[in-house]
Structure formats: C-alpha cells, structure tokens
Amino acid sequence: MDKIKTLTYNKESPKTLLELITVLRIYDKYRDDESIRIITADYFCHYHIDKYLHYVDKKGHTDFILNCFFDDSKIVFKKLCGGYSPLNSSYCRFKIYKGIVNDQRLKESFENNSSELKERLDLLKKKFVYGWSIKSRAEYDFTRLHSIIYDGISDEILKYPISGKYNDGSFNKKYYNNSNNNNNNNNNNNNNNNNNNNNNNNNNNNNNNNNNNNNNKNNNNINNNNNYKKFILPDIIIEKIIRDSLWYIDDRMDKVIINDNLLSYGLVCKQFFRVLSKILNNEYFEWKKSIIQFNNDSEFSLIKQPPLYFDYQSIRLIPYSSSIEYVKLLFSRVQSFYIKTDEYDAINYYMKREKKKIPDNDDKENVVYLEAITYRDNIKSPRYLVYPPPMPSLESITIDKYYGLESNYAHLIKHILIKYFKDFKTSKLHINDRFGIKRFSINIQEYHKYLNDKSNIKFIKQVLEYHSNSLEIVEIDCSNTQYIYPNQLEYLKSLIDNQSNNNINWSLSTKNITNNNNLQNIQYLGFSENENENENENENKNENENEIESDNESNGESDSYSFNL
Predict the structure, then answer these.
(1) How many structural domains comprise the chain?
(2) In angstroms, how far is CA 290 from the centroid of its own chain?
(3) Which of 1, 21, 75, 466 ranks highest by number of CB atoms within 10 Å?
(4) Is residue 147 part of a domain?
(5) Is there a contact between 52 and 87 (Cβ–Cβ < 8 Å)?
(6) Sorted alphabetically, which Pfam families does this protein's record hold (predicted)?
C-alpha cells in the first residue's frame, strides 16, 4: 500500500538537505508525472536561492538542471528558471554549459524540436549570461551550437583546463602558472628523450652482464634467508606504531584525526589495514575530500561503520542521488559536530574563502566583483546555510569564529540542538544515554557594528537550558570581544547550574576584565530570567518550528505540496 507523504514548506525559510533528497527521490519515482516534475523543479529552485558551491553537491546540482533543460515539458524548465541563479558562481554556470554541450540529448533536441530548443537556450542566455554582464561570450548561441554538433567545430569555451580545479570547485593558481611552462618543457623533454635513449641502449648492454653476476649472488642470499623464522608483531604494537604516526587537530574540543594519507598506512599490509580500520571506526576523523564509503560486510572496506565526527564543510560531499536511508545512516553515529562560520568574509576585504573561478575574457574583473559582492551579502541570508540531517547520537558541538552578524547561524544551531532533539523525543527515537549533548564550545568574535547594536547570542542560553541535565563541559571563549563582561557569563553559569543535575565543568574567558554589574548588560545578552519566561511562552504558542526559526525574517506565503508514494 502506497504511503502518503506531505511536504509543507515556507518558500522564504531554509530547509534541510534531507528534505531536498526526499523530494528528488519522489521525482525519480514519478518522473512520468508532469505535475511532480513541476513541483520538484520549483522546490529545487527555492532551495538553492542564496546557496553557494561550497555547501552543495555540484554533480547532483548540475545533473538535475540538465534533466530540467531537456525535459519534455517546457513548464518544468521555466519553473526552474523562474527565480534561480546557478549558485552565484561562474564556475557553476560553466559546468552547466559544458554538461549541455556534451549531452547526447542536445543533438536529439536539434532534430526533434529546434524551435523549442532555441527558446530554452535564449532563456539560459538571459538567465545565466546577460544577468552577469558577460555580453561578449557566445554561450547558448543556437547557431554556434548547431555548428559544433553537426560541423565538428571545436568549442573554444570548453578549452579551459578543468583538471586544475580544487575539490571544492575552485581553481589551482599553480596549475595555471605552470601550464604554459609545461608546454615548453614538453618540447625540451622530447629532445632530451632522444639523446637519453641512445645512452640507455649502451648502458643496458653493460647492465645485462652485471645482472647475471648479481643473480647468482642473490640466489645464495635467498637460500640463507629461508633459514630465518617468520615473526609477526601483535596488534597492540602495530596500533602503537600507527597512532604515533597520526596527526590530530589540536584546536578543537574533541580530538580529531587528520585525514591525510590515512590509506597509505592501511596499504602497508593486511594487519596494518585491519588495525587502522579498528581505530577509524571507534574514533573521530575528518572526511573532507570525498563521501564516506562504509561497508561492514567487506574485508576490503577500511571504514566499517558510519563516522563519529562531522565537519559542516563536508556537507557538500553528500550526493543528491543518495537514498534517504543512506543519509540517515550516515549521520546516525555522529557524536561530534564542528562548524566554522563564514561571517568573517562578510565584513573583511580579504576573504578567507577565496572565490576562485575559471579564466574569463574582458568581463573577468566585473564578474569577480559581482560574485564577491553577492557572496558577502548572502552569508547573512537565512537561505545561505544548508541544514544537515538529524544526528541522534550527537554529544558534542563546537562553534568556531561566531560573529552573530545575523540570526541565520543561531537558527541553524537551534534547529540542530533543539528542534531535532524535540523530534527525537516525540518519535521515541533512540538517542544517546542522557538524551542531550555533553559538550558545548563556542568562540565568539567581535564586530562592533553588530555586537554593539544587537546580539544574536541569546541562543546560547536557550541551548544550554535545553541540555542542562546532560551537559558536562561548557566552553565559552569571548576573549576576542569587549562587549561581553565576566559578570554576564557568570550569571549564565549560575542560571544553568541551578537547572542542571550535573556538576558542569565551565571554561569562561573574556577580553573585558571590568566586572560590570549593570543588570542591563545581562538583559542585553538575553540571559535574564524574565526574558527567558517570555521566550518560552512565545515558543509554546508556536508549534510549527518554521515559524519560530523565521523570527519575522520572512513573510512569504506557504505552499503545501502532497506527494503520493
């Protein structure tokens, strides 16, 4: 019997990655239903507004856009293009263009319905090219693409060296600096190789004679070596060797193994592979280059179980093609969650997340400027962040470089630590033994324009209160801001200690050593009891978490979509 699934969302509020994957699986199952395809395209469009390449599955994103472009229904493609810009990235636009040109469906579209194809190409040109003031490039030109498909003319736009990209889609400067030198070096190497071949022929004749003599000596050595007994080191010694060779991230609350060349240890021998697998399946390690592949049934799988650690940056590695069951399983054992905000880039001229992109023509500087401006603005948007799937085993969270410019990061943390944990209790899902997190750490940075006028750190009190009976360690580092006073943190500590059944270990640090006892400062941070009572009353009135999280940031209309499974 088919199950009825209803997905309701507010177009103005950010939604979870799991919901997107759910919609895409419905799309796969009912691809013959035009209404389902239209709904999915609309959802996909709204989900990705203000999103960026570094938090999105690039391949899954491109594949879905290509499917909509070649969809039999023009309504599907128009619905996607209605209010969508391709991740505000010239690199993403380039990959979409490349995918269309190399797709065999392009030739079929020329043959079956060329007028409809021209209309869609013009729409893409208007949306992806003119909208970014790249007026001199010939992307999506109908006549030009026809010549490429039928006359065999090479596409100059596709000659950019995509092999020089980083894992996050950005590009390696060294690759471009060395690309021209490599061409010159190749010519020189060809000449050198000819000379070397002649010398090698002469050397080979001499080496053959020497090898015959050496073989006789080696045979004698082999016979002598066979007299030695085999000796296998116990696993505990191998584990000691591996652990002494591993590197750990040392600037976080939890000890995390750095995932650089881990596989090289496992390839030493079967025993190393087995011991390393045991270590990785029971400890925190980072996964930042590719999606975790785990298989408990295969002796050749280094990772047997889902990971215990999750860095928010890795959310882009989760394929849109994943099943719902796989995504839930992937996050089922996560105990430690780390997030470093991008807020620094919103207020500083030199951005830490450099916006590299493919080489462009005369419009390059304009494109770089436009992308940098939109990136700075969108960091503070409620749609910028991707909400990860639930983590029922979560015990520890570390929030790094938090400025509190807007409320989007605060809402994300509340969604993970309050909304999800409420859902766990409601669904009676098995979670960790204390039904809450044990360790909480946050590093607060200063930007006076925002912190002096308003504060988005009230969520700290809300989170700590909700998890007061499970908390064991709380670290609040305010040493980089002068707007938080020692007495404010001490008041928070006292408030939580009075509610908790545990003896919480607190680590509080402030830059401002003045012990200002002004009650107004306490209320300013949202740490007063009266304010807490008012907030609880408001939250009780709002059963829908979407309304709580929006905090009047958006007043868009809600659409309810029903899918029959």
Answers:
(1) 2
(2) 10
(3) 21
(4) yes
(5) yes
(6) Vir1p
